[in-house]
Specification:
This protein folds into two domains: 179 residues, Alpha-Beta Complex (Aspartate Aminotransferase, domain 1), CATH 3.90.1150; 218 residues, Aspartate Aminotransferase, domain 2, CATH 3.40.640. The relative contact order is 0.14. By secondary structure, it is α/β, with parallel strands linked by helices. A seven-stranded mixed β-sheet has the order 1-7-6-5-4-2-3, with helices on both faces. A five-stranded antiparallel β-sheet has the order 8-9-12-11-10, with helices on one face. The protein is built from eleven helices and twelve strands. It is globular. Bound molecules: pyridoxal-5'-phosphate (PLP). The site of pyridoxal-5'-phosphate has 12 residues, from helix 4.
């Protein structure tokens, strides 16, 4: 719209050239938004139905004190998460401090001395390396506790390597096969539900005793099915990513088969206590309202990611995924040429934020990451990456990851600011 473009140019400091490029890209990608609308609608009904069938009511937004026995809000929240993700049981807590914690509860709760863990999507997400024990010896890591760890890379075309998986399963008889759905800090497409479900079915058919776990971070509500629907036994994620809808203030979830979720709960509290204790501190309202909004918010973020793919491809960058590719996470990878470009990109995204737009992001040694990481995040919830954000480790090949945006116009504005900022130093 002419007025909007004038406004962007006159009051928001966007250059006419960028406005033109983004408008062109938007016209190309708009037809793809239709599909996102359909997925959003399906997932909205799925969440709504879970809330209605659980007979969610105002009393569930209150909370208890002390031990928290029979806390109705906590129990209702977990019942609803289980239903939405097609699982038998769920652990959803504010004292699960992040996605890494949720994943490690599911891992450490279900793997014991002599067990073997087989990761089939290459190295797992950076923050899990200490927990597993593959970033040097780490006290209390899975490896130190006597769990064997093996890893299989994806094939050159970034697909699951069934041949290698079969060989390793025969050799190792792993207790658990582990998939990471999202890209993480690599430059591969996310595993689609089709890839995932085909391989999970194949594993379950041939080796029914093997437990299947999926790191579902950034994958929730991208498709109409989730990994548990595809046969995974357990999966975990963060509430300040997709399923919190930008509203949840903290927390993580573990969902799946009853026995595996209970084991994760025993790890969070203690054997014998499991899910029976633990306060929610008044968070159930925001967690559930966030879950209710999540299908919409994820759809907005994805539209922004598709636009970003087209715009930065036009600007001569390698992008992952391409704008027309299927999507199974909210991440848009953009490959830049050097650290200065990574900084400029992140500076642009930061300057697009509603909070802290005036600050300059700098790379720092974040806990759990091997290289300094730069993060642009001017979010209402600290570190929330369902809100508009960009981040990247300061190492070649200088990939930056663009994600989130609670509204499509905001994600679009982030794209424009990042492009303008990049163009300034090019
Ligand atoms: C974000 C993320 C994690 C870890 O989540 P935190 O909340 O940052 O601890 C794990 N795996 C993947 C794929 C992620 O994107």
């Amino acid at each position: 719209m002419k007025e909007t473009n004038q406004y962007l140019e006159q009051h928001m400091g966007i250059t006419p050239e960028t406005i033109r490029i983004v408008a062109e890209a938007e016209a190309e990608v708009k037809p793809l938004f239709e599909k996102r609308e359909e997925i959003k609608e399906y997932n909205q009904y799925k969440v709504l139905r879970a809330m209605q069938e659980a007979r969610l009511s105002d009393q569930h937004f209150h909370w208890h004190t002390g031990y928290g026995y029979n806390d109705p809000g906590r129990e209702k929240t977990e019942e609803i998460f289980a239903a939405v993700f097609g699982a038998e049981n769920a652990l959803v807590r504010p004292n699960i401090v992040n996605g890494t914690h949720a994943l490690s509860l599911a891992l450490a709760g279900n793997l014991f001395r002599g067990d073997s863990l087989l990761c089939v999507t290459g190295a797992p997400y950076d923050t899990l390396h200490e927990m597993i024990g593959i970033a040097g010896e780490y006290p209390g890591s899975l490896i130190e506790m006597g769990v064997r760890y093996r890893q299989i890379e994806l094939t050159e075309s970034n697909t699951l390597d069934r041949h290698a998986i079969e060989e390793k399963i025969r050799e190792e008889a792993p207790t658990m096969v582990y998939f990471q759905r999202s890209t993480g800090y690599s430059f591969r497409p996310a595993l689609t539900m089709e890839d995932l479900s085909g391989t999970i079915e194949w594993i379950k058919k041939n080796w029914p005793q093997v437990m299947v776990m999926v790191d579902n971070c950034y994958g929730e509500f991208l498709e109409i099915r989730e990994p548990i629907d595809a046969g995974a036994d357990v999966m975990a994620g963060s509430l300040i990513k997709n399923p919190g809808g930008g509203i949840a203030l903290t927390g993580g979830y573990v969902v799946g088969k009853d026995q595996y979720v209970m084991r994760a709960a025993d790890r969070l509290t203690t054997p014998g206590i499991g899910k029976e204790c633990g306060l929610t501190f008044g968070t159930t309202r925001s967690v559930l309202q966030g879950l209710f909004l999540a299908p919409l918010i994820v759809s907005e973020a994805i539209k922004g990611a598709i636009l970003a793919a087209r715009v930065f491809e036009k600007a001569g960058c390698k992008v992952q995924p391409h704008w027309q590719d299927p999507r199974s996470d909210i991440i848009q990878g953009v490959q830049l040429n050097n650290p200065e470009e990574v900084k400029a990109f992140c500076l642009g995204v930061q300057a697009a934020a509603p909070v802290d737009a005036y600050v300059t992001p700098i790379a720092w040694d974040m806990p759990g990451y091997q290289d300094p990481v730069i993060m642009a995040a001017g979010a209402f919830v600290q570190g929330s990456s369902i809100e508009l954000s960009a981040d990247g480790p300061m190492r070649p090949p200088y990939n930056v990851y663009f994600q989130g945006g609670l509204t499509y116009p905001h994600a679009k504005f982030g794209v424009m600011k990042a492009l303008d900022s990049l163009k300034k130093i090019r």
